[in-house]
């Protein structure tokens, strides 16, 4: 990665994380409800049975109302579990699933539940630090999602749809991307769904 792109991405991360952490609890709650209402209207959602979500941290747009709707619809929900410094997998989640904080302080499914292969997921709702309308995404910088779904770059059109979840204030007009960045299929914000151009 060139030093210029790396430092630009770090500066963007810092600025955008500050913006989303500055949102009030009421703004966060309202955004989470709006996303849940919009999610269930998406054709991608209607055709999906195996859906990956996440537990919000660091000002991320929360998915608890969306997770409730996924479970109420009888669909299967999965949450990420960080396995080591480079890999993560997705574990089944139900209302009675015990969660434990990982080394980043993010709750994840505990125990020895068999993971689902990333290729077997239909839809992945992933947290964003920043995004642009061309599908570029800025994550926390660990590369976990990029590595987990790298097969999508090699097998175009394969695997799950990747829908980024973010507050509308996290949108950028453009975003410096790297060769390993896996593009999004679309973005769902508190203001609506943005199909990738």
Automatic annotation (TrEMBL):
Swiss-Prot/TrEMBL catalytic activity: (6S)-5-formyl-5,6,7,8-tetrahydrofolate + ATP = (6R)-5,10-methenyltetrahydrofolate + ADP + phosphate
Entry binding sites for ATP: 9-13, 137-145
UniProt similarity note: Belongs to the 5-formyltetrahydrofolate cyclo-ligase family.
Highest taxon of the lineage: Bacteria
E.C. no: 6.3.3.2
Protein name, per record: 5-formyltetrahydrofolate cyclo-ligase
GO BP terms, alphabetized: folic acid-containing compound biosynthetic process; tetrahydrofolate interconversion
Residue numbers binding substrate: 55, 60
The keyword Glycoprotein appears for this protein: no
Needed cofactors: Mg(2+)
GO molecular function: 5-formyltetrahydrofolate cyclo-ligase activity; ATP binding; metal ion binding
Ranges annotated as spanning the membrane: none
SUPFAM superfamilies linked to this entry: NagB/RpiA/CoA transferase-like
PANTHER family in the record: 5-FORMYLTETRAHYDROFOLATE CYCLO-LIGASE (PTHR23407:SF1), ATPASE INHIBITOR/5-FORMYLTETRAHYDROFOLATE CYCLO-LIGASE (PTHR23407)
Keywords: ATP-binding, Ligase, Magnesium, Metal-binding, Nucleotide-binding
InterPro entries: FTHF_cligase, FTHF_cligase-like_sf, NagB/RpiA_transferase-like
Record organism: Pseudoteredinibacter isoporae
């Amino acid at each position: 990665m060139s030093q210029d792109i790396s430092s630009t991405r770090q500066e963007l991360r810092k600025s955008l994380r500050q913006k989303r952490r500055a949102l009030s609890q009421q703004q966060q709650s309202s955004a989470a409800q709006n996303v849940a209402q919009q999610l269930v209207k998406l054709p991608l959602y209607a055709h999906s049975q195996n859906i990956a979500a996440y537990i919000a941290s660091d000002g991320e747009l929360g998915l608890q109302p969306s997770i409730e709707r996924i479970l109420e619809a009888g669909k299967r929900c999965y949450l990420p579990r960080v396995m080591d410094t480079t890999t993560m997998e997705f574990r089944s989640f139900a209302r009675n699933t015990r969660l434990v904080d990982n080394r980043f302080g993010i709750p994840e499914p505990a125990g020895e539940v068999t993971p689902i292969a990333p290729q077997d997921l239909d839809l992945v709702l992933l947290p964003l630090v920043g995004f642009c309308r061309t599908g570029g995404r800025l994550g926390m910088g660990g590369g976990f999602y990029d590595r987990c779904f790298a097969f999508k770059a090699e097998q175009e059109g394969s695997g799950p749809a990747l829908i980024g979840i973010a507050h509308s204030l996290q949108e950028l007009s453009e975003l410096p991307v790297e060769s390993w960045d896996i593009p999004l299929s679309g973005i769902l914000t508190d203001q609506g769904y943005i199909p990738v151009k």
